[in-house]
């Protein structure tokens, strides 16, 4: 399609002064950070935040020139006169009971809430158009937002940024809980980052790892903020956040140790040259008295202590812009190791592959005496392919029984016996000494009801209705068109003949 | 008793017959129309005949030319005949179903006093300055001044001059056939300034059969209500280059005047962005002789795609986007040159892609690396860049270089970079293109609706179709009477309305409702109802037939 063009330039534009204005101080800045928090349950949470600040009044300019701020979002702000925009896509649910409180909250699915400028006349129309455009930008089904799932909260969802008045008429809020978040939502989100995914912390954003997690939440927040301390003019702030929770058992084979490489299958190689701040925070708060429970590698340059969400936390800080940090080893792979040996236990989990292999979960646990241990597994009911249903699908589908194998201490100490000589019922399972005996328990198989579709339902309805109509019609028709006339009995029935025979025999005239 | 019984039976039989006939009558008179009415799709009436008439539309493009004769331009007795009007019409031969005729309506008149005065001044530029002020010419019209054969207004070897506005100057002649000779010259000049076959062929490129030069013709953007122009600076290596460009100043100084001049052709919006880590799709080759890298011509098409995903769609509007990329190659691949077919570096180091935009490679001066540490600060020379981008912009809008007749002087470029008559030429071309697009859209819509009877035609779709047809007709009329501006506006309306009708979502609602499903629903209802009716009708028919025959036999 392209063609090299020998340009004979007839256009010579030498208007105006030739001097070039001196470069102004950069009017936009980028800060990026990653917080890694080992969670109480043993999982690891990673929270990315990229903040782009732009000292510009987007709404007043006819021609806009973008540098770090993404053009696609900037155009939205000026076209739809947005004051604030908050959009999040979340897969999974943040388990506060096991993971503690989150830094960034988001509901499952897609959430969008927007404050419009008070100059907007038809808020509903702008809201509809905006959700359509956003659905195009983020490849999400936000176009399903309509009046049936949009609300205007009056007490909650106050503006997070600079705001003079809060007339709720200009707020719209919608959630799509069914929205499934996947790679196609992450790619456009990554494209909005100035360093794309080529340098800085964004290198770690590899889709196939980020979606193999228990929780994934990505968000975009746009709001106006004060440009300086006296707040004489405003700047626009774009925060792109992404939180994931890695399942430590899957990635770490039962250990709680982690490293950047193990979680993201990448390491940090170079800082983003556009960022004015680029840091990794690792939560190294120790809850026990002895400080020697964990170890981070490489050793951090500084630490940071603060009260976060009500608890005192200690963070190790790695500054990527510090040239020594990366130059020493060409890349930075932060590792955390727990010094105490992990609790006695072993978990082996092999996930199923559809139609190829089943799940396998093996746990080696030591149970305290007089305790109840529950192991529960969640099933997802799914529709099978229609050829895969058994002839009697409503009976249910079997899940094979679980197995419990244990060495139970014996009540009575028995003397070692000759294995060959002992009776057969006692010698299938070899036992090393007499103080234990081996037990294997099987649970009941589980019968699970799967949803079964009814393919013929609509046609059945049609047929039934038509049959009813046809039957009614048919009887009416018969009733009205048939001719009824009285049949003159000619020979009479069998009973009559019999009666006449008897009458003749008796000499009485026949009937 | 038996006779009475038989009579009663006959009565009963007759009643049954009547009932069956009545059922059949109700089913036919009431049931069938009811079924027909309730299952029918709503189809508003459309002007099918007018739409098919549009295909045979004859476009007459009229260019009003005012020809002004100064005192000594033609022989005196010829001057006596003034003023009068000559029409020069010719058909433009294009392989297109629409016949296009071009008409130059030349109104000859004598020069007024102030015109005489202006044209006797020393140079063409002065004359123009003096002539310009009093009159504002309508779009599409031209004024040609005929000056005396020996006037020093033009250099001696030049026969004519084309000005930057809608004026031209032609040298007169003292000859018996003066009007004929001058008339031919005027038509030559007027053609160069308004309509040529090339311009129209380029405008209709999409509708004409393919031929070998059509690729070149398909370069300009398609006509639209507006355009978005995006300048992007690609910096794939921000570690080594800290690139700054004064795009705001450059847009203000160079792009905006050009777009202001072009504003009659549509709405324009301009923005710019800087993209970091945006790579080209191909690896440049190394040329050891000049120790530089190069992209050869056949690899250029692969350059655009990977970059395009980063450019960002224009989320906020539906207008086509023109992209202009300034690529500062990474340190490892600089300097980078673009080679043409013969392997020679392209002077501008730029190329363009039809209907998409242009890319320019901007090499950082190698001297800057010596002094300082990385990243080096790079100030982009915007004059150099904008020269290329504006030339590409002109090409992409289809403002081609005019074909100047021999011995004709062309005025120098204007400050806007666009001559007024070039804009007129663009408007002619765009109007014709819009008319062709609207006609094609309407014809396909009419064909489609005629072919598929399932489609619902709502009233608003029909009204858009009527509007579009009316706008096409109005535009053609305005073109024929030489009102370019209103013709262009009408042609835009025609395109907008026709596309609104064509892409209306309501057309799709019942499109995919197959016949077998229809029968699956009808048969369980209709079969049990129709069979008894038909059977009793057959029975009645047979009986009547028999009773008709019996009397014959007895006779």
TrEMBL record, chain B:
- Record's bilayer topology term: Multi-pass membrane protein
Lineage, uppermost ranks: Eukaryota, Metazoa, Chordata, Craniata, Vertebrata
This chain belongs to which protein, by name?
PIGS isoform 2
Q: Where in the cell is it found?
A: Endoplasmic reticulum membrane
Gene giving rise to this polypeptide: PIGS
Alphabetical list of InterPro entries matching this protein: PtdIno-glycan_biosynth_class_S (IPR019540)
The UniProt transmembrane annotation reads: 19-36, 519-542
The UniProt keywords, alphabetically, are: Endoplasmic reticulum, Glycoprotein, GPI-anchor biosynthesis, Membrane, Transmembrane, Transmembrane helix
Q: Which GO terms describe its cellular component?
A: GPI-anchor transamidase complex
């Amino acid at each position: 399609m392209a063609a090299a063009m020998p340009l004979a330039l007839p256009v010579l534009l030498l208007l105006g002064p030739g001097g070039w204005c001196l470069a102004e101080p950069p009017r936009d800045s980028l800060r990026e950070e990653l917080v890694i928090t080992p969670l109480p349950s043993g999982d690891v949470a990673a929270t990315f935040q990229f903040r782009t600040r732009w000292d510009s009044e987007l709404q007043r300019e006819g021609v806009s020139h973008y540098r770090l701020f993404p053009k696609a979002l900037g155009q939205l702000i000026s076209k739809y006169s947005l004051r604030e925009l908050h959009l999040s896509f979340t897969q999974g649910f943040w388990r506060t009971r096991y993971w503690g409180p989150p830094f960034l909250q988001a509901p499952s699915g897609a959430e969008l809430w927007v404050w419009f400028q008070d100059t907007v006349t038809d808020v509903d129309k702008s809201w509809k158009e905006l959700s359509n455009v956003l659905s195009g930008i983020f490849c999400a089904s936000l176009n399903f937002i309509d009046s049936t799932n949009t609300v205007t909260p009056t007490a909650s969802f106050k503006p997070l940024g600079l705001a003079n008045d809060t007339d709720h008429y200009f707020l719209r809020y919608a959630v799509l809980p069914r929205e499934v978040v996947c790679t196609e939502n992450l790619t456009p989100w990554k494209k909005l980052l100035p360093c794309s995914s080529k340098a800085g912390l964004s290198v770690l954003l590899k889709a196939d790892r980020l979606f193999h997690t228990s929780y994934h939440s990505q968000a975009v927040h746009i709001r106006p903020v004060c440009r300086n301390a006296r707040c004489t003019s405003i700047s626009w702030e774009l925060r792109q956040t992404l939180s994931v929770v890695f399942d430590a058992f899957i990635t770490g084979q039962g250990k709680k140790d982690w490293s950047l490489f193990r979680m993201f299958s990448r390491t940090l190689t170079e800082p983003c040259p556009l960022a004015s701040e680029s840091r990794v925070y690792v939560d190294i708060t120790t809850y026990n008295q002895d400080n020697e429970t964990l170890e981070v590698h490489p050793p951090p340059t500084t630490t940071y202590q603060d009260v976060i969400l009500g608890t005192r936390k200690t963070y190790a800080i790695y500054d990527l812009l510090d040239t020594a940090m990366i130059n020493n080893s060409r890349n930075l792979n932060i590792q955390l190791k727990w010094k105490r040996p992990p609790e006695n236990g072993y978990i082996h989990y092999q996930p199923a592959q559809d139609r190829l292999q089943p799940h396998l979960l093996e746990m080696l646990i030591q149970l305290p005496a007089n305790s109840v241990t529950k192991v529960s597994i969640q099933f997802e009911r799914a529709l099978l392919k229609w050829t895969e249903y058994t002839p009697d699908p409503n009976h249910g589908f079997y899940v094979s029984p679980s197995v419990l194998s244990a060495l139970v201490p014996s009540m009575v100490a028995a003397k070692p016996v000759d294995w060959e000589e002992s009776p057969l019922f006692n010698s299938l399972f070899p036992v090393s000494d007499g103080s234990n005996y081996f037990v294997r328990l099987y649970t009941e198989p589980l019968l699970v009801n799967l949803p079964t579709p009814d393919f013929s339902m609509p046609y059945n309805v049609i047929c039934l209705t038509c049959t009813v109509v046809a039957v009614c019609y048919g009887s009416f028709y018969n009733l009205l068109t048939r001719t009824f006339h009285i049949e003159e009995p000619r020979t009479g029935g069998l009973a009559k003949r019999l009666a006449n025979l008897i009458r003749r025999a008796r000499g009485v005239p026949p009937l | 008793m038996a006779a009475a019984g038989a009579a009663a039976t006959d009565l009963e039989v007759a009643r049954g017959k009547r009932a069956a006939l009545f059922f059949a009558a109700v089913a036919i008179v009431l049931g069938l129309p009811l079924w027909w009415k309730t299952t029918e799709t709503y189809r508003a009436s459309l002007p099918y005949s007018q739409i098919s008439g549009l295909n045979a539309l004859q476009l007459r493009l009229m260019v009003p030319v005012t020809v002004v004769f100064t005192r000594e331009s033609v022989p005196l007795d010829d001057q006596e005949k003034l003023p009068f009007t000559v029409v020069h019409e010719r058909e433009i031969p294009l392989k297109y179903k629409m016949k296009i005729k071009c008409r130059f309506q030349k109104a000859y008149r004598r020069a007024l006093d102030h015109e005489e005065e202006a044209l006797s001044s020393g140079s063409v530029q002065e004359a123009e300055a003096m002539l310009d002020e009093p009159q504002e010419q309508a779009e599409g019209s031209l004024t040609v001044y005929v000056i005396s054969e020996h006037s020093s207004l033009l250099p001696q070897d030049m026969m004519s001059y084309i000005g930057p506005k809608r004026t031209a100057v032609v040298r007169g002649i003292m000859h018996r056939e003066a009007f004929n000779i001058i008339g031919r010259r005027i038509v030559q000049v007027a053609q160069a300034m308004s309509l040529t076959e090339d311009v129209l062929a380029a405008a209709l490129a999409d509708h004409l059969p393919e031929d070998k030069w059509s690729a070149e013709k398909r370069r300009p953007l398609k006509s639209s209500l507006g355009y978005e122009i995006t300048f992007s600076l690609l910096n794939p290596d921000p570690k080594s280059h800290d690139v700054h460009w004064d795009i705001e100043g450059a847009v203000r100084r160079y792009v905006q005047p050009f777009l202001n001049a072009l504003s009659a052709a549509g709405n324009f919006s301009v923005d710019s962005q800087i993209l970091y880590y945006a790579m080209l799709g191909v690896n440049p080759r190394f040329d050891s002789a000049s120790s530089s890298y190069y992209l050869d011509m056949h690899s250029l098409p692969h350059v655009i795609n990977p970059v395009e995903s980063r450019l960002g769609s224009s989320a906020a509007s539906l207008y086509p986007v023109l992209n202009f990329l300034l690529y500062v190659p990474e340190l490892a691949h600089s300097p980078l040159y673009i080679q043409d077919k013969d392997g020679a570096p392209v002077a501008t180091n730029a190329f363009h892609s039809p209907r998409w935009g242009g890319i320019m490679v901007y090499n950082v001066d190698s001297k800057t690396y010596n002094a300082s540490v990385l990243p080096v600060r790079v100030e982009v020379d915007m004059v150099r860049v904008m020269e290329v981008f504006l030339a590409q912009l002109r090409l992409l809008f289809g403002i081609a270089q005019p074909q100047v007749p021999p011995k004709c002087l062309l005025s120098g470029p204007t400050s806007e970079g666009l001559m007024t008559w070039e804009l007129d030429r663009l408007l002619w071309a765009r109007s014709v293109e819009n008319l062709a697009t609207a006609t094609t859209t309407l014809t396909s819509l009419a064909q489609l609706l005629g072919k598929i009877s399932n489609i619902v035609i709502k009233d608003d779709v029909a009204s858009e179709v009527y509007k579009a047809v009316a706008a096409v007709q109005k535009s053609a009329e305005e073109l024929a009477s030489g009102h370019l501006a209103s013709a262009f506006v009408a042609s835009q309306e025609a395109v907008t309305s026709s596309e609104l009708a064509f892409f209306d979502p309501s057309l799709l609602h019942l499109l995919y409702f197959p016949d077998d499903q229809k029968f699956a629903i009808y048969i369980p209802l209709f079969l049990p109802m129709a069979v008894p009716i038909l059977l009793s009708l057959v029975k009645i028919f047979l009986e009547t037939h028999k009773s008709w025959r019996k009397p014959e036999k007895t006779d």
